[in-house]
């Protein structure tokens, strides 16, 4: 007998009545008419749509703005200028590189424009200091005067085109201008100085050999006396003398008639002037006052600045010259001379001589000061130190009748009458009519210098003495000058490098020292080869550098 399939147990507590109720609900729905259901659905849809559809946005009123149709009239075009007759540069022309230093155009009339084709565009750059140097020049002298003058018409310029002042005779002097071959000796000395200038414009007492442009030339250094063949033998002090050496070298170019506006060495002079302008302090002093040598540096640089100003008439140099002169005047001791410092309360003949020379150059350039008082006070000092000694009136260095000074490293060098030479030069340059070639003191001191002429013997070589004695005895003239001139020419010309027997066949391209003098004198330990060359060049310019103060009648 078969059994029906088992029914699963229900997990509810009531009886199983749910299936019957479901069948009844389905039969109820099935009995409702389909039209009624559709109508209800549409009503429901419309109600929903009423809430979904957005309302129309509110229209904002538009305010119309009226715009004027009037137009602004267009201005007429300016009249066209006729085209200038301009010349376009040649595209094939090679243009040199411009100078590294800005050149300021000076449109003022230059009465010393020697080259008719040259425009007045060579004045120095704008003054780097706060002081205004662009004021017009006080018309510095460019022609001879009754005072001591620079040769060749107030200091040079020389021939048309600015070739220098070597050729012209001293204006109004009428005498010979020195040995003919002096020109080549001066030229070679200037060439050496130009080739050993630092690019920044100064000359270095120690690094001139590194600054040389003669890169392929051999170097022999000193030939004798002082560290022969040693690279250190011809060098001077480091740093402290460079400013003075720059002034001394620039003076050598000025003495030959060169300046920064014309000629072969105008760039050399320009760089040197720019350097001196840069190192001048607000009180007028050139360089720092760190040691005693600053007074020499300043006096020499003042001379150089004043003489270039006098020759060129460049107004850019005016304020520098004025301030330099003011410093010298402020440094003078009351009623006396000068020494190391400002109103140092001590005097010496060497510094006093340099200061008088510098002021004389300033005065010739148009700088005004109480010259009679200033020179008179310097004369008071010279009177005090000039006394009878060894049978003649001897001028002392820093006390009556004392010998000339010597560096500690040069005590073996023989004493000489260099202070007598300074006394002669100072007395005659300051213009006192009592101090001419016939004055007893001057005649006696000139005779003493003529007894101590230049010779090439180690312990008698003193370029400083030879420079001052040449200036002094040239002013005195006569037999003492002739004696001195002959010895000076022979000694300096024969011992300039390139004329020594050891230098035979050399040129500036093959010998670095060619044109210079060895640093073997009593003061070369301080200034080195640059000092030796610059001061000896000034010495052999004596015929064309200064006009004689007291002309023969």
Overview in brief:
With 553 residues, the protein is mostly helical.
Please give a structural write-up.
- Strands 1-2 form a two-stranded antiparallel sheet.
- The protein is elongated.
- A hairpin with a 2-residue loop joins strand 1 (386-389) and strand 2.
- With 553 residues, the protein is mostly helical.
- It has a single domain (151-545), classed as Alpha/alpha barrel (Glycosyltransferase), CATH 1.50.10.
- The termini are far apart.
- The longest helix is centred in the N-terminal third of the chain and has 19 residues, at 34-52.
- The chain is built from 17 helices and 2 strands.
Tell me the number of structural domains: 1
User: Could you state the order of secondary-structure elements as H and E?
Assistant: HHHHHHHHHHHEEHHHHHH
**SS field, number of helical segments:** 17
Strand line-up in the sheet with most strands: 1-2
Mean pLDDT: 80
Rounded radius of gyration (Å): 47 Å
Helix-strand category: mainly alpha
Chain oligomer state: single chain
Number of strands: 2
State the distance separating the first and last CA atoms.
Answer: 186 Å
Strand content: under 5%
Shape verdict: elongated
Q: What is the class in the CATH system? A: Mainly Alpha
Stretches with pLDDT under 50, minimum 5 residues: 1-22, 86-122, 125-175
Features:
mainly alpha; 2 strands; Glycosyltransferase; disordered N terminus; 40% helix; 553 residues
